[in-house]
C-alpha cells in the first residue's frame, strides 16, 4: 500500500512498514487544510493530531484506511469515511501511562506553583514566602471521572502519593477494573455531583461523545469547594470553558489542562484560547501521549493494524475499527457501495 504518514512517527516503525513492502510518504508537517492534496494516490493515512475532515476524505482518490495513532478519534470525520468505505481505526490503551504521568505532573505543578516558581527565578525574583504555601497531595480527596486505562493509571499514581481516590459507582464495570480500583481503596459515590461535592480535585478521563460534551458545566462546577482543582487531559469539548473561567474568578478554582476547545489542528500554530491564558490555568500543548515510551508502543500497534488490514479478507474489519457501524449503515443505505476491505 501507499501510506501517508501526516504526523511525527518513529523512524524504525516507518522502516518496518517499508520492510513489509509498503511505500511510505512521510510529511509530518501536513496541516488539516493540506491533507486533501497530500492524500492523492494514497491507500492509507496515519495521523496523530492532524484533523481529517470530510473534505479531505472526499478528495482522496484511493483511501481505504485511516489510523489515528492514539486513542481518541474526535478529530476524524468517521461518518464521511464510512460513506466512502474507509475504515477508521485507533490505538487504545497504549498511551495510558504517559497521559497519567502528565496529569499527575499538572496536579503537582498546581499544588506547588512550579511554573510560577521557575518564571520568577528566571526573572531574578526570590519569593520564598509566596511559594511556601501549598496543601500537598497526601490526604487530598481526588475524584477520577472515567475509570478506563488512563483514569485507572492516574488513580493509581495519585493513591501512591497518599491521595484518597474517589469515583462514581457504575453497575456495568468489568471485574478487572473493579479489582484495580479496590486495590487502591477507591471510594465509590452515587453521582458526579456528589463526587464534585466530596472532592477538592476532579480529574477527567473520558472520551468525546454526545454524552460527555460540556460535561464540566456551570452546574457541576458550582458543586466544587473553593480553591478546587480541575484536571483535563482527555478532550477539550468536555469543558464549558466560559463556565470554568467564571468558577476560577468567583470561587478560586484552578485548572491543569492539556486540551482546549479551540486548539490548533496541527502541531504548531497560534493559540487564541482565553482559558489557556487565564492565570489560574497551568496548561500544556496537548502532549499527554507524547513520551518516547508511549509513541513506540503506539507505533508498534499501528504497524500491526496495517499488517492485519493487508492480510485480511475483504469482509474482515481491521483491529480497533471505530466506524464499523457507520460503514454497515452506509452499505445498507447505498446498495451499490461496499467497503474496500483488506488486501495489498
Describe this structure in words.
Belongs to the D-isomer specific 2-hydroxyacid dehydrogenase family. The protein is α/β, with parallel strands linked by helices. The protein folds into two domains: 2-92 and 292-333, NAD(P)-binding Rossmann-like Domain (Rossmann fold); 96-283, Rossmann fold, CATH 3.40.50. The protein has 14 helices and twelve strands. The chain has helices at 11-19, 35-38, 54-59, 78-83, 96-112, 114-122, 128-131, 149-160, 175-183, 192-198, 218-221, 241-251, 292-311, 324-333; strands at 2-5, 23-26, 44-47, 65-68, 87-89, 141-145, 164-168, 187-189, 201-204, 229-232, 254-257, 281-283. The strands form two sheets. The chain has a seven-stranded parallel β-sheet. Strand 3, helix 3 (54-59) and strand 4 form a beta-alpha-beta unit. Helix 5 (96-112) packs across helix 8 (149-160). The longest helix is centred in the C-terminal third of the chain and has 20 residues, at 292-311. Mean pLDDT is 93; it is low at 337-344.
In terms of structural class, how would the helical and strand content be classed? alpha/beta
Beta-strand percent range: 5-15%
CATH-level-4 superfamily name of the largest domain:
NAD(P)-binding Rossmann-like Domain
Q: How many DSSP H or I helices?
A: 14
**Unreliable residue runs:** 337-344
In short:
The chain is α/β, with parallel strands linked by helices and 344 residues long. 37% of the residues lie in helices and 14% in strands. The strands form 2 sheets. Strands 8-7-6-9-10-11-12 form a 7-stranded parallel beta sheet.
Amino acid at each position: 500500500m501507499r501510506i501517508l504518514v501526516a504526523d511525527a512517527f518513529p523512524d524504525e516503525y516507518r522502516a518496518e512498514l517499508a520492510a513489509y513492502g509498503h511505500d511510505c510518504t512521510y510529511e509530518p508537517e501536513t496541516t488539516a487544510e493540506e491533507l486533501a492534496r497530500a492524500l492523492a494516490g494514497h491507500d492509507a493515512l496515519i495521523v496523530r493530531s492532524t484533523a481529517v475532515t470530510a473534505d479531505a476524505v472526499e478528495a482522496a482518490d484511493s483511501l481505504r484506511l485511516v489510523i489515528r495513532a492514539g486513542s481518541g478519534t474526535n478529530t476524524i470525520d468517521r461518518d464521511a469515511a464510512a460513506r466512502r468505505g474507509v475504515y477508521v481505526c485507533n490505538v487504545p490503551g497504549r498511551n495510558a501511562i504517559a497521559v497519567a504521568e502528565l496529569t499527575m505532573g499538572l496536579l503537582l505543578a498546581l499544588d506547588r506553583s512550579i511554573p510560577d516558581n521557575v518564571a520568577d527565578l528566571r526573572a531574578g525574583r526570590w519569593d520564598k514566602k509566596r511559594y511556601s504555601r501549598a496543601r500537598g497531595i497526601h490526604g487530598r480527596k481526588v475524584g477520577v471521572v472515567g475509570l478506563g486505562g488512563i483514569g485507572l493509571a492516574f488513580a493509581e499514581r495519585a493513591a501512591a502519593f497518599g491521595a484518597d481516590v474517589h469515583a462514581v459507582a457504575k453497575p456495568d464495570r468489568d471485574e478487572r477494573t473493579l479489582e484495580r480500583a479496590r486495590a487502591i481503596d477507591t471510594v465509590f459515590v452515587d453521582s458526579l455531583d456528589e463526587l464534585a461535592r466530596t472532592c477538592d480535585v476532579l480529574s477527567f478521563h473520558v472520551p468525546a461523545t454526545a454524552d460527555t460534551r460540556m460535561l464540566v458545566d456551570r452546574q457541576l462546577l458550582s458543586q466544587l469547594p473553593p480553591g478546587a482543582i480541575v484536571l483535563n487531559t482527555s478532550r477539550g469539548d468536555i469543558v464549558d470553558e466560559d463556565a470554568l473561567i467564571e468558577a476560577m474568578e468567583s470561587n478560586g478554582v484552578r485548572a491543569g489542562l492539556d486540551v482546549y476547545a479551540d486548539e490548533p489542528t496541527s502541531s504548531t500554530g497560534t493559540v487564541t484560547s482565553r482559558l489557556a491564558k487565564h492565570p489560574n490555568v497551568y496548561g500544556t500543548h496537548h502532549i499527554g501521549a507524547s513520551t518516547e515510551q508511549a509513541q513506540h508502543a503506539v507505533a508498534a500497534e499501528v504497524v500491526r493494524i496495517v499488517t492485519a488490514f493487508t492480510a485480511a479478507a475483504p469482509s474482515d474489519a481491521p483491529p480497533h475499527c471505530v466506524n464499523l457501524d457507520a460503514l454497515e449503515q452506509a452499505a445498507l443505505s447505498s446498495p451499490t457501495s461496499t467497503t474496500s476491505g483488506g488486501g495489498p
